[in-house]
Amino acid sequence: MATYSQTAPQTAPPPEPFPWRERLGQIVMWLLIALVALYILYPFAWALVTSFKTQRDALQPTFIPFVQFEPTLENWEAELGIGGREALSALGNSALISVGAMVMAILLGTITGYGLALFKFRFGNRNLVSWFLSQRFLPPVATIIPFLLLFQHLRLIDTIGGMIIINTTFVMPFAVLIMRDFFADFPIELKEAALVDGATEWQVFWRVALPLAVPALAAAAVICFAFAWNEYLFASRLTARDARPYTFLIASTGTVRGIHFGFVSTRMLIAVTLPVILSLFVQRYIVRGLTLGAVKG
Q1: How far is CA 189 from CA 24, 112, 198, 202, 262, in A?
Q2: Which of 101, 123, 180, 285 allows an S-S link to 228, with CB 3.0 to 4.6 Å?
Q3: What is the dihedral of CA 225, 229, 230, 231, to 10 degrees?
Q4: Following CA atoms 233, 237, 242, 245 in sequence, which dihedral angle do they give, to the nearest 10 degrees?
Q5: Tens digit of pLDDT for each residue in 88-143?
Q6: Rounded to 5, what percent of the chain is helix, strand, coil?
Q7: Which distant-in-sequence residues (6+ apart) come within 8 Å of 104 by Cβ?
Q8: pTM listed for this prediction
Q9: d(CA 187, CA 192)
Q10: Residue 65's closest CA among 85, 45, 81, 83?
């Protein structure tokens, strides 16, 4: 006797309700991203175009080179050529101050962060962390007069060493907090194993913890360098000629006839280039270092 198996008829899945809404949402999202990107990049595009203009062209509403105006290299030649000794000297001062402040902040901040993460102090670790944070919450302008009197007594006004000290004071909290968050997640088992093997506390820090902290060190170093590179307030009051950084030179771009927009744009692009290039080289370390300690298992 032949038997027939009855199978349920296969039906197509129901169509997605309102698929046009999802596509419309994606289009709106990408339009918003494009608008935000244009808003952020417009100042840099304006500066790039204006740096190739003469002062006369810079005062005109023109944007397309070779069509609306004739580009020129006179601003770049005046800034980086033979006649740009002042700019090159200011760039050298900024590099020395920023690198010096970064090295000092990383050196002191790493040791401090390690201690705050793995040791207990009588004053309370949270109180110490709050004190470091207060260095950033305190308005820097409130400390100009005390620093001015102190540097005058120590003969540190208009010196590279004095600017390194004052920049280290205000960028070190970043290094302390980033390194503390990293070492707070440092596996205690690694430390105990090293101590059992006969290592000292210093050897645990130098040979075990520090090699693992490379991403956090890179993130802290770039942040400290960028803040020291962009510092202007103390440079405008504690330097006069020998230790003037590049930010001071940018702010002083002006004549009796007004601001020379070509020079301002050129100097702005030069000032932005070095931190951007540095961040691109260590980008993967920055992202990893800034997210350390963000998620607790």
Answers
A1: 52, 21, 14, 16, 59
A2: 101
A3: 100
A4: 10
A5: 888 999 999 999 999 999 999 999 999 888 888 887 778 888 888 887 788 888 88
A6: 70, 0, 30
A7: 164, 168, 172
A8: 0.80
A9: 9
A10: 45
